[in-house]
Amino acid sequence: MDLSFIVVGLLFFLRLLSWLIIIRILMSWFIPQSRNSIVLFIYETSDAVLRPIRRILKPKGRIDWTPLIAIILIDVIQYAIVRLFS
What we know:
79% of the residues lie in helices and 0% in strands. The chain is mainly alpha-helical.
């Protein structure tokens, strides 16, 4: 199996995860308590990333900065992967 195929797949997965977090943020403003299966999938998938960050950085005030931190960390990981394999 070609290593570039794995790298591209990993980068795609990380980008998809970033978009799921952004969609989760928007849904929290517009669809706060939906039990739709798609909404639940987005919440459960993004929680896998957000929960460990929330354990380290406790929420302060009314604004949850965890999604922003997660997106920045995902971007840093993507940048490192691109620099490492290019």
